Amino acid sequence: MAIRWYWEDLQPGSVRELGTITPTREEIVDFATKFDPQPFHLDEEAARHSVFGALCASGWHTCAMAMRLTVDNFLRESSSMGSPGLENVKWLKPVYPGDTLTLRHRTLESRPLNSKPDLGLVRSVWEMFNQRGEQVLHMEGYGMFRRRTPAQPAA
Question: Which residue intervals define the domain MaoC-like in the entry (predicted)?
Answer without folding.
Answer: 19-108
